[in-house]
Design a protein that fits this description.
Elements: H1 5-15, H2 23-26, H3 79-84, E1 86-87, E2 90-91, H4 116-132, E3 133-136, E4 140-146, E5 151-155, E6 158-161, E7 168-174, E8 179-183, E9 191-193, E10 199-210, H5 213-218, H6 223-239, H7 244-249, H8 253-271, E11 275-286, H9 292-339, H10 341-357, H11 376-393
Antiparallel strand pairs: 1-2, 3-6, 4-5, 4-7, 8-10, 9-10, 10-11
Helix pairs in contact: 6-8, 9-10
């Protein structure tokens, strides 16, 4: 429960014509319906308000005992009067020139005029200079629009003047800057179908710049989104014309990039986009992540098969070359045989026996009526073995 005794007491005093701050604040000489004796309080004009009733002191009166308190006028109870008479150096008396404000004022111009109109004029001049003067670099162009976005004119590199904002606005763009768009963004997967019904994860980079600033600003709602959508269409159409091996090996990349650039430029020109495609660069061509291990196995098997086929082709070429050489040699021998059959027959016999007997360890010596066998290779081996044993013993 809230203690209401103090409130009731002050309300009763106010109804009886007494001030809660004591008789000095509202009563005349402490008179009233209850203004006698101890309840009357102090009747002095300085109004300390601390009578026998023990009430608080009136804060709007100067403190009792202060110097000159009997001569000082009563303070006003209005908050406006309190701050009107208070400056940075304390309360002011006498109503002088500085007694009507907070104590801070701008210095006056000669003749007593205000600085406010001059400050407004300087701000307007600065605003006109900023919004009306435009300096464009050699790589930039600007588009001037009226209030509301209606096209007005195009600004070339150099110094130009327009109406101030908001009557006219200028949008400046670097038309020579080569910009780039990466598809897809980040490490996302972009699956594209090839001509042999396979999927490839392909990422590529588009390099472009602005060739017509007016078309770029006013023809399309979002030129960059249109650029990416057209690039995706052109890339899918070009990859669909190639087989998977051609796309992955890089043999068909240059052709794909050229076709994508041509398709994109034709579509963007038909849209009136004001964009020039400078180039397409394929950055990655990989199989889908879910089948990459199986694809590696297939690629390894294909490489092994190609290696075996190449080895077989090389052997076939060697056999064919040897056969052609033997045939050419036989033709030459036949020509000689036709010229001298006996000599050629004997020479062929000797060459054949030499090639056959050179692989054996037997030596044949012809004599009259006897054909002795001399084991010359065996004698040679025994002599060499004996010589080696002698050297080892020494």
């Amino acid at each position: 429960m809230i203690n209401m005794d103090g409130f009731r007491r002050r309300f009763g005093l106010s109804m009886a014509g007494k001030s809660p701050w004591g008789p000095g604040s509202g009563s005349v000489n402490g008179s009233g319906s209850n203004g006698g004796g101890a309840d009357g309080g102090d009747n002095s004009p300085d109004g300390e308000g601390g009578g026998s009733d023990g009430g608080p002191r009136n804060p709007w009166l100067p403190p009792k005992g202060s110097s000159g308190s009997s001569e000082e006028p009563r303070r006003s109870a209005k908050i406006e009067d309190i701050f009107r008479n208070r400056g940075p150096e304390g309360p002011r008396r006498g109503g002088g020139p500085g007694s009507g404000g907070p104590g801070f004022r701008l210095p006056e111009r000669p003749g007593g005029k205000s600085w406010f109109p001059l400050a407004i004029g300087v701000i307007l001049l600065v605003w006109l200079a900023i919004s009306s003067i435009h300096q464009l670099s050699p790589r930039e162009k600007g588009v001037v629009t009226w209030m509301g976005g209606k096209y007005s004119t195009t600004l070339d590199p150099g110094l130009h003047f327009t109406l101030p904002f908001p009557l006219q606005q200028v949008e400046v763009e670097n038309v020579s800057q080569i910009r780039s768009e990466s598809i897809p963004e980040g490490a996302q997967e972009k699956l594209i179908l090839t001509g042999d019904q396979n999927l490839v994860d392909l990422s590529y980079l588009i390099r472009w710049n602005i060739k017509d600033l007016v078309q770029y600003k006013f023809q399309l709602a979002d030129p960059e989104d249109t650029l990416t959508e057209v690039a995706e269409f052109a890339m899918r159409a070009s990859v669909a014309e190639q087989e998977l091996d051609s796309v992955l090996s890089g043999a068909g990349r240059a052709e794909i990039e050229q076709r994508v650039r041509s398709r994109m430029q034709g579509i963007l020109d038909a849209y009136g986009s004001g964009i020039a495609v400078q180039g397409i660069e394929i950055e990655k061509t990989d199989p889908p992540e879910r089948v990459i291990e199986a694809f590696k196995d297939v690629s390894a098997a294909q490489q092994d098969a190609e290696t075996d086929v190449n080895r077989a082709r090389a052997y076939a070429q060697q056999v064919a070359a040897r056969s052609q050489g033997d045939a050419a040699s036989f033709d030459k021998i036949y020509e000689e045989y036709r010229l001298a059959p006996e000599v050629t027959r004997r020479r062929l016999y000797y060459e054949t026996m030499e090639s056959v007997l050179s692989q054996t360890d037997k030596t044949v010596v012809e004599t009259d009526g006897v054909t002795p066998y001399l084991p010359l290779p065996e004698v040679r081996r025994r002599s060499e073995a004996a010589r080696t044993g002698t050297e080892g013993a020494q």
